[in-house]
Amino acid sequence: MNAILLAESPRTAFAESLLARGGPEVILLRTDSMPLSRAYVRRTAGVATFTLDSAASPMDEAARYLRWVKGTKGLPRPRSVCGGDTESAELARWFGALVDLPERAPGQLAPVAAAAPRPWWRDGRAPLERDLSDLGNPAKRLAPSA
């Protein structure tokens, strides 16, 4: 089963959108000092969550996380890590490096309702062809007009 470790942020729209639409199983990465609303914590109570202890060393937390993933019955091992905004992306990148998980950008997980549309028309046709190709639908390459 495909699972992703999602670094949380106080701005919870990305996490809630990802959890609501289904897709890869989400395991939340939270810090004990992160200010999250009680309502959000209640809504995510049923989601597997690993909370980093800010008083512990990073290496100890990485080892604790790996033991937790291995020792929790029915919990899929995440194949990548992601953060929905700049702050959580830094946490994702840092922790992913410690536990050997590659980072994925939010856009690689599929569009999120709250995200602004990408202005592909400004970049020309090449990015659109690349996006279609990434989705498994290779675009026809057009010869440049003379």
Polypeptide structure, described:
By secondary structure, the chain is an alpha/beta fold. 39% of the residues lie in helices and 14% in strands. The chain has six helices and four strands; from the N terminus they run E-H-E-H-E-H-E-H-H-H. The protein has a four-stranded parallel beta sheet with strand order 3-2-1-4, sandwiched between helices. The relative contact order is 0.18. About 11% of the residues have low confidence.
Write the layout of secondary structure elements.
Elements lengths: L2 E5 L5 H9 L3 E7 L6 H6 L5 E4 L5 H14 L8 E4 L2 H14 L20 H4 L1 H10 L12
Parallel strand pairs: 1-2, 1-4, 2-3
* N-to-C series of helices and strands: EHEHEHEHHH
Number of helices: 6
Separation of termini?
Answer: 49 Å
Uncertain spans, ≥5 residues at pLDDT below 50?
Answer: 110-125
Q: Gyration radius, to the nearest Å? A: 18 Å
Structural category is alpha/beta
Largest sheet: 4 strands, parallel
What is the overall pLDDT average?
A: 75
Report the strand count.
Answer: 4
Rough shape? Answer: globular
Helix content: 25-40%
Order of neighbouring strands in the sheet with most strands: 3-2-1-4
Oligomer: single chain
Our estimate of the beta-strand percent is 5-15%
Brief summary of the model shown:
The chain is α/β, with parallel strands linked by helices and 146 residues long.
